[in-house]
Each structure stands twice: as C-alpha cells, then as structure tokens.
C-alpha cells in the first residue's frame, strides 16, 4: 500500500542536467478528484529545461509508477517502448534499452553517478527501490552522449529528492503498504519532508520481505529450506531495506545540500539452488547551486561517494566478495544567451576501485579513473530548436591482478589509457500546434571496461569462462534517431525510428569450446578405476570487437474513446482511454551476418483505462512474439506469449490525508513464459520462467 503527496510547484534546478523535481507544500485535493498533475519538466537529457524535448524520453511518477512498480528497476521499466530487462529472476534485473545492456546503459541517481556491480554480472542487483523513488526517467538514443560513452544505449535516471532543490513550506509526506500473493511479499515505505524558505529536510525508509515466487509449472529445488518439487522458482526469496536522510540550506544566490543513504539486500540468485547474495550500498552526496550573475548565470555542482559490497554465500559459508568504491564529481556552468544560443559547459571526474576476492573471482582487482569536458548548446528559431553537444574524455584502466593470492597468475597486470570523444546534433521542428518532428545524430566512443579488458576466469552465474582482451580498442558507434509526435487534447501519438552502427562493438561471444575449473581448454576425461570421469566444465566465452548494427521502431500513445476529447461523452462524466505501445529491434553482427544474443522480439500492448470520480480501472495486455532469430551458439529460442494484467484504484480524502487504495493482478492467465533477454533462459532452462499470477493490494497515503 502507498501514500503520495500533491505539490503546488515543481523544482527543476536551472542548470542540472538531471536534477530532480522538488516538493513544496501539499495541496488539498478533493476526494473525488484524481491526484493532481505535477506538471513536471523532464530533466534527463534536457539541461536547459525546455518544455518540448528533442530526445525520446519517458517519465514515470505518481500513480503511473505506483501501479507498475516491481521489486527491481528492470522489471519496473520493462514494457515501456524500447525498454526491456535482463531478468535474472525476480531479484536482479537491469534495464535494457534498444537491445543494449550492461555498460551501454547508464543508471544515474538524481543526475549523478550511482555505481554498483550490476553491469558486471546479470545476478548482481541494482540498489534502487521504487518505494522511495519520486520519478524514473528513461532517455533513449543518441542524445545520451552528455553522460558519457557508457550511455550509448540510453540513460535511466532515478529521482528521489533526497537533496531538495527548492524550499519546502510546511510539512508533508507519504507512506506505502503493500502485499502480493505471488511471492507473499510484504512491503512498506515512508517519506517525510518539511522546512521553511531557508532550509528543507528529507527522510525516507523502506522494507521488502518476500518468499519464493509462484510460477505456472512444477520445478525441482535442492535448497535445504525448501527441497522437492513445487510451483515455485527455487531460491527466489528476497529481503531488502534501506533509507536516507538529507537536507538543504537556501541563501539569496543559491543553495547547498547533502544526503546519506543506505541499501541492504539478501536474495537468492535463482541460477544456483543454495547460493545467496548479501549486498550493501552506502552513498553520500553533496550538491549545490550558485547564481553569481554576470556571464555565467548559474554554476551547479554534485559530489558523491558510493561504497558498494556484496558477498556470495554457498549455503551459510561466504564465497566470493565483490566491492566497488567510487567517487563522482560533476560541475556545470550555464552561460547567458549569446546571439540566440543558450547552453552550458561542464566537467566530470569519476574514479573507482573494484575488487573480487574468492574462488569465483573471474575479473581482477582494478582501478578506473575518468575525466571529461562537455558542452551543450541550443539555438531557438521561429519554427523550432537546434541543439549541439560534444564530450571529450581521458580514461585510465589499471589491472592490479589478485593481491590477496599471489599464486593466481592468470590475470593480466598493467594499464590501458583511452581518449574517447563524442558529438551529437539534434533538431525539433514544429509543423503545427499538433505536430512535431525530431531528429538526433550522434557519434559516440566508449572506453572498454575493466572486465572487458582483463577478465579471465569462471563466471558461475552465467556458466561461462569469460576471457577479456587487454588489447581492445575504443568502441565506436554512429546513431541516428528520427521521431514524429502528435498531440490533440488527451489524444497523443509518438513514433521513433533509429539506426546505430558500431565499427567496434565489444561483445561476449561463445567460441564453441569448454574450459575446466582451472582453465584448461577442452579438458579430456580422466580414467579412474570406476571408469571415465568427466571434469566440471564451463562454456568458453571471449570479449572481442565486431561490427554491429541495431535498427528498430518504437511507438506509443493514447486515444480517448469517451470523454471531452473522445468520440462520445459519458453521461456520468466518466472517461475511457485506450493506451497503446509497441516496439521492435533487430541487432546483427555484420561481420558474420548472425544475430546478436539476448535481443527482445517485437512487442505490442494496449490498456483500456476507465475513470469516473475517485475510481480508476485498467485492463491490458502485452504480447511478445516468438524469438527465433538467435545466434547459432549461445541463445535458446523463445515462444510467443501474452500477459494480461488489470488494476483498480480508489482515491479518498480522510482529514488531512489523501488515500489511494489499489489492487493489481499480474499475469491473469498464469501463462508460462520465458524472457528472450534473460541469460537464464539458456543456462538454467526451464528453471527461471517469468512469474505466474499474482494479486497485489496496497494503500498509498499522502499528507
């Protein structure tokens, strides 16, 4: 169940590329009225705060986020046009955008870096929870270059307002309570904010506790806590909790704020029946803005430190421990208009130290530093707007081997330096009050990551021996996006087509060989008194650069059937809308003509939404076509499936609180389905289907 607060205004830091909307005083909403619209400005990829966006961006907040939120970031966003998930079971799922995943998708927190280990391995969770998130924004395509080469596929920005960017007059908050039948999940969260025109304070906390997830088929389980067969996904239970405290001081020429947050999780890895991960992520952030006047109208700075650690347990015994400690600095200075041009210049500096210690340490300890300069300029015209951006970086990646065990000599020890540069152009044309055309063209370079360069060991989660290449060169791509958007009252439609070509796409490919646990290639069986003994082996995978091409379409919109902008009007004042969506992506290794792995099939979906007074009812489906276009080695084809879902919500006012009661049913038909973008569909089939039918009931209160 949950609680949201209405706001009288939205704060967007004038200069922050990704700053979050801030709350003000909470308005008094009538019981029968829908939750008030915040009128938020999308800030991801929109550093100058324009109301019309050149880049394709999607935002989720309020009831839209509440009714689709899941326990992982990937599953919460899955199904948006162009967005999928890596789905390593219900506890670890990272977003994919336009067929790309890992370090081509940048996950940010309030516009700043939020490092973890989720890009390194599919079983590593993203330390984010929707219970304490204000808004999620997804930026797709070439315009993401201002966030670096690791955003070539897109950006996901998690906005939580832990450092308020505008004064908060008075006091308010929200609370959430929920229960889901499919995994017996009990969840709750609370958020409080208050202040004056000189200071603002924020505090939040959440907790989730769930058991194994129900699925449509019986599956075996060797976990001592639940052995035998059951219609449950083995080892899929999860516990997570966390919270944050933050505050801001305001002065005549700006503001300065700080926050501290923590996230804890203990979850099963699904791929192995008796392996769990204990994860901890602590983040400290300092942010401020100064408006000095003169040539630079404002200077915005963000500084953060993240300390991430997780340990993989085999039963009760601790195994491999991964750590990733990092620092991030971002400074942006916005200049006053010059001859019709508005823009900003900026500097970012990131440093991180990664270590993996234990038997399953397939990548060495490493240190990475990156410094970058960037600029963004826009030119307004009578017919629309033009934009230009550029970025140049210096990246140093050093492998430290395995200092904890000098006998491990398989890792390369040394340093690589890279100097990637990127540039992008964009344009928006207003054809009429209802029609807009957009285009984005970008050239992007990405420095290889530490594991792409230096990995050399067994990765149990993917059942593969992964080998990096210290001689990899910068990954280079050119992307083009063309879009058309129409809006007339409540009716909207948007279509985007894109093409991205890589001259050096760094991928992980199967060689067709196998390796033993000690690295021997194609080990022979050992002859014993009891006969031939075949050693444990891992499929052999290597990182290398290939030419690749991604093409696709994304579409979505709303058609009001009954209402002020519909074909008719209901006598009772109700409205009926048809929301529709669809996408397709085709990804090819152009060196071989073979498809790239783990690409989603074409998808379509729609939802009927009926609203009358305080009631809202929704019924919809998402159809995923069969995916038979898979590489000859490495992927299992998947069958087509359709998932139906429904929800019902009721809003009421009780004294000073606005309540939203809701019920949601996922996978109404209890359909058996497997994700084409999940590596588990190949490595542990059939042990990791999508979750079965589940009813979630909840309450959100805003006061």
Which key phrases capture this entry?
single chain; 703 residues; mainly beta; Maltoporin, Chain A; 22-stranded antiparallel beta barrel; 5-stranded mixed beta sheet; globular; disordered N terminus; Beta-barrel_TonB
Q: What do you see in this structure?
A:
The protein is an all-beta fold. It has one domain (57-508, 536-702): Beta Barrel (Maltoporin, Chain A). Helix content is 3%, strand content 56%. It has four helices and 37 strands. The chain has a 22-stranded antiparallel β-barrel. A five-stranded mixed beta sheet has the order 1-6-7-4-5. The protein has a two-stranded antiparallel sheet with strand order 2-3. β22 (421-430) and β23 (435-446) form a beta hairpin. The longest helix has 5 residues, at 62-66. The relative contact order is 0.13.
Return the structural class. mainly beta
For the secondary structure, the number of strands is 37
Contiguous helical run count: 4
Would you identify the regions where 5 or more consecutive residues have pLDDT less than 50?
A: 1-39
Write the CATH architecture name. Beta Barrel
CATH class: Mainly Beta
Task: Indicate the radius of gyration in whole angstroms.
Answer: 25 Å
Average pLDDT figure: 89
Distance between the termini: 15 Å
How many individual domains? 1
The largest β sheet comes out as: 22 strands, antiparallel, barrel
Approximate helicity band: under 10%
Name the quaternary structure. Answer: single chain
Classify the fold: give the CATH topology.
Maltoporin, Chain A
Shape by Cα distribution: globular
